[in-house]
Protein backbone atom coordinates (compact mmCIF):
# COMPACT_ATOMS: atom_id res chain seq x y z
CA UNK A 1 0.00 0.00 0.00
CA UNK A 2 1.40 3.34 -1.03
CA UNK A 3 1.75 6.01 1.59
CA UNK A 4 0.37 8.53 -0.93
CA UNK A 5 -3.05 6.89 -1.50
CA UNK A 6 -3.04 7.79 -5.20
CA UNK A 7 -5.87 7.24 -7.65
CA UNK A 8 -4.36 5.92 -10.89
CA UNK A 9 -7.72 5.81 -12.67
CA UNK A 10 -8.25 9.53 -13.15
CA UNK A 11 -7.64 9.48 -16.93
CA UNK A 12 -10.14 7.03 -18.35
CA UNK A 13 -9.38 7.70 -22.02
CA UNK A 14 -8.50 4.53 -23.86
CA UNK A 15 -10.53 2.42 -21.44
CA UNK A 16 -13.56 0.45 -22.60
CA UNK A 17 -16.69 2.21 -21.43
CA UNK A 18 -20.29 2.93 -22.13
CA UNK A 19 -22.04 6.23 -21.56
CA UNK A 20 -25.70 6.61 -20.72
CA UNK A 21 -27.76 9.72 -21.48
CA UNK A 22 -31.31 10.54 -22.45
CA UNK A 23 -30.24 9.83 -26.05
CA UNK A 24 -29.39 6.18 -25.27
CA UNK A 25 -26.37 4.01 -24.53
CA UNK A 26 -23.15 5.04 -26.28
CA UNK A 27 -20.24 2.63 -26.76
CA UNK A 28 -16.59 3.67 -26.92
CA UNK A 29 -14.26 2.40 -29.64
CA UNK A 30 -12.55 0.16 -27.09
CA UNK A 31 -15.81 -1.48 -26.00
CA UNK A 32 -16.84 -2.05 -29.62
CA UNK A 33 -13.45 -3.67 -30.35
CA UNK A 34 -13.76 -5.99 -27.33
CA UNK A 35 -17.05 -7.26 -28.76
CA UNK A 36 -15.30 -7.82 -32.12
CA UNK A 37 -17.55 -5.45 -34.09
CA UNK A 38 -20.77 -7.51 -34.26
CA UNK A 39 -23.55 -6.39 -36.58
CA UNK A 40 -26.15 -6.90 -33.83
CA UNK A 41 -26.01 -7.28 -30.04
CA UNK A 42 -28.13 -8.52 -27.16
CA UNK A 43 -28.20 -6.36 -24.03
CA UNK A 44 -29.18 -7.89 -20.71
CA UNK A 45 -29.57 -6.42 -17.24
CA UNK A 46 -29.55 -8.01 -13.80
CA UNK A 47 -31.73 -5.76 -11.62
CA UNK A 48 -30.46 -7.27 -8.38
CA UNK A 49 -26.73 -6.81 -9.02
CA UNK A 50 -26.92 -3.83 -11.37
CA UNK A 51 -24.85 -5.62 -14.02
CA UNK A 52 -25.42 -4.84 -17.68
CA UNK A 53 -24.11 -7.36 -20.21
CA UNK A 54 -23.64 -6.87 -23.94
CA UNK A 55 -22.83 -9.72 -26.33
CA UNK A 56 -22.89 -10.42 -30.02
CA UNK A 57 -26.48 -11.33 -30.84
CA UNK A 58 -27.41 -15.00 -30.73
CA UNK A 59 -29.82 -16.59 -33.19
CA UNK A 60 -32.87 -16.64 -30.93
CA UNK A 61 -35.99 -14.80 -32.08
CA UNK A 62 -37.24 -14.52 -28.49
CA UNK A 63 -34.25 -12.33 -27.50
CA UNK A 64 -34.29 -8.70 -28.62
CA UNK A 65 -31.25 -7.72 -30.66
CA UNK A 66 -30.08 -4.22 -31.53
CA UNK A 67 -28.23 -3.01 -34.64
CA UNK A 68 -24.60 -2.40 -33.71
CA UNK A 69 -21.71 -2.09 -36.19
CA UNK A 70 -23.67 -1.51 -39.37
CA UNK A 71 -21.06 0.63 -41.15
CA UNK A 72 -17.39 1.66 -40.92
CA UNK A 73 -18.18 4.86 -39.00
CA UNK A 74 -19.74 2.82 -36.19
CA UNK A 75 -16.49 0.99 -35.46
CA UNK A 76 -15.31 4.13 -33.64
CA UNK A 77 -18.43 5.14 -31.71
CA UNK A 78 -22.08 4.18 -31.74
CA UNK A 79 -25.28 4.50 -29.76
CA UNK A 80 -28.15 2.12 -29.05
CA UNK A 81 -31.46 3.91 -28.59
CA UNK A 82 -34.03 2.08 -26.48
CA UNK A 83 -36.44 3.78 -24.11
CA UNK A 84 -37.13 0.47 -22.36
CA UNK A 85 -33.41 -0.11 -21.69
CA UNK A 86 -32.91 3.46 -20.54
CA UNK A 87 -35.85 3.21 -18.12
CA UNK A 88 -34.49 -0.06 -16.73
CA UNK A 89 -31.04 1.49 -16.22
CA UNK A 90 -32.61 4.53 -14.52
CA UNK A 91 -34.51 2.23 -12.18
CA UNK A 92 -31.26 0.51 -11.16
CA UNK A 93 -29.04 3.58 -10.87
CA UNK A 94 -31.66 6.04 -9.58
CA UNK A 95 -30.13 8.61 -11.96
CA UNK A 96 -32.46 10.71 -14.14
CA UNK A 97 -30.34 10.74 -17.31
CA UNK A 98 -30.26 13.99 -19.26
CA UNK A 99 -28.36 15.12 -22.33
CA UNK A 100 -25.18 15.04 -20.21
CA UNK A 101 -23.82 11.48 -20.40
CA UNK A 102 -22.74 9.42 -17.40
CA UNK A 103 -19.83 7.07 -18.18
CA UNK A 104 -19.28 3.56 -16.82
CA UNK A 105 -16.14 1.46 -17.21
CA UNK A 106 -16.62 -1.87 -18.95
CA UNK A 107 -14.69 -5.12 -18.79
CA UNK A 108 -14.72 -8.05 -21.16
CA UNK A 109 -15.51 -11.51 -19.83
CA UNK A 110 -13.77 -13.76 -22.36
CA UNK A 111 -15.41 -16.91 -21.02
CA UNK A 112 -18.90 -15.47 -21.53
CA UNK A 113 -17.81 -13.44 -24.60
CA UNK A 114 -19.59 -10.48 -23.08
CA UNK A 115 -18.93 -6.87 -22.19
CA UNK A 116 -19.80 -6.35 -18.52
CA UNK A 117 -20.73 -3.02 -16.91
CA UNK A 118 -21.45 -2.47 -13.23
CA UNK A 119 -24.13 0.22 -13.28
CA UNK A 120 -23.72 0.80 -9.56
CA UNK A 121 -20.14 2.07 -10.09
CA UNK A 122 -19.31 5.07 -12.27
Strand content: 25-35%
Major sheet: size, sense and barrel closure?
8 strands, antiparallel
Low-confidence stretches: none
Mean pLDDT over all positions: 90
Count of extended strands:
8
Protein model, in words:
The radius of gyration is 15 Å and the shape is globular. It is α+β, with helices and mostly antiparallel strands. β7 (102-109) and β8 (114-118) form a beta hairpin. It is built from 2 helices and 8 strands; from the N terminus they run ββαββββαββ. The protein has an 8-stranded antiparallel β-sheet with strand order 5-3-4-8-7-1-2-6.
Which helices and strands occur, and which strands form pairs?
Elements: E1 17-21, E2 24-27, H1 29-34, E3 40-46, E4 51-56, E5 66-67, E6 78-80, H2 83-93, E7 102-109, E8 114-118
Antiparallel strand pairs: 1-2, 1-7, 2-6, 3-4, 3-5, 4-8, 7-8
Features:
122 residues, alpha+beta, eight-stranded antiparallel β-sheet, 8 strands, 14% helix, 33% strand
Quick recap:
The chain has helices at residues 29-34, 83-93, and strands at 17-21, 24-27, 40-46, 51-56, 66-67, 78-80, 102-109, 114-118. The protein is of the alpha+beta class.
